[in-house]
Amino acid sequence: MAQRKADLTVGLFMVAGLAALLFLALQVSGLTLRPSDDSYRLHANFNDAGGLTPRARVSMAGVTIGSIREISLNRETFQAHVIMDVNAGIDNIPADSAAVIRTSGLLGEQYIDVSVGGDMESLADGDTFYSTQSAMNLERLISNFASGQ
Amino acid sequence: MIKWLVNLGSQGRKFLESLGRSGQFLFAALAGVPNPRVGFPLLIKQMYFLGVLSLAIIVVSGLFIGMVLGLQGYTILSDYGSEAAIGQMIALTLVRELGPVVTALLFAGRAGSALTAEIGLMKATEQLSSMEMMGVDPLRRVIAPRFWAGFLSMPVLAAIFSVVGIWGGLLVGVEWLGVFEGSFWGNMQSSVSFTSDVLNGVVKSVVFGFVCTWIAVYQGYDCVPTSEGISSATTRTVVFSALAVLGLDFVLTAVMFGDL
């Protein structure tokens, strides 16, 4: 009888541990179990990627529509090349839309905001944003202001 | 001077001998895989003593540490108007550092000392040698189940500690101090990564569980079989475990997060 009680409580203990790990995975780290094939990739080249990091969000009108997969340096143009995953449901982004790097709040992280264009055609998998706007660099802004440009 | 050198040499030799014995001991305890029909109930019993009975101290400490993190984080972050970042602060602190480390320290104090005293008393009352007389290997029968039970319980306890701590932080930050719950979870989810934060925390707790249980069972098995011997072995278990956990934590953090 004592052995069965120990069996039961140890079983509950292990289940509680697994549940805790599951909670850490799903609720705390936001890991989703959806397959990765319901998104498509878009590219963008920026003169200055600033503090943009992989996994940062891509948003449109303040709503998150995807995330950043990879940031690398384009060796020919010396620009930052950003690859992002956009939800497959958002498949009608006008082709002349612009990708803008913005900061959420004063101290928040940087993200890409897609400002909508007016083209009838839309961006498809593998396409590149034509117009981009780099991260706002406070020091550059102040030095431009100070030198009167 | 000569005396001092001799003393130093014999101390060093004793230390090396002890290290060698503990290595052999670990190998013997792990290599002796017991018969699953006999060994499994023993393992369950030890997991009950080491894991389930440690739950109370782990849950209460986790709750209070999470609540303190919530209060402290709110006071600092609200100076910069970014108290919404409290969720990611609490989660990263707990999952990466405090969860594994504090759980290991509490585990060494609550379960490690008990292991050492129990095995030490078994040795002092010659239960271990009478087992050998009966042809039962004490390493398999006594040490191996305790070792595996500690090793398996530690990550479970650390995960529960982190979850309870995050809930404590939620209680203070969201319920009492009025941080918006959506940004609490949202900031947490965007900054905590499953592989590099949660899994690294689990790896840490597995390493700490291994080291703490190894120290505890070895100190018990190797103690001088007198009452003073058992008491000094129990002290050594807690001191060595705490030092090993904190030292290893620095090494593991440097490898995992430090880009060294």
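qc> The CA atoms of residues 42 and 126 of chain A lie 5 Å apart.
qc> done
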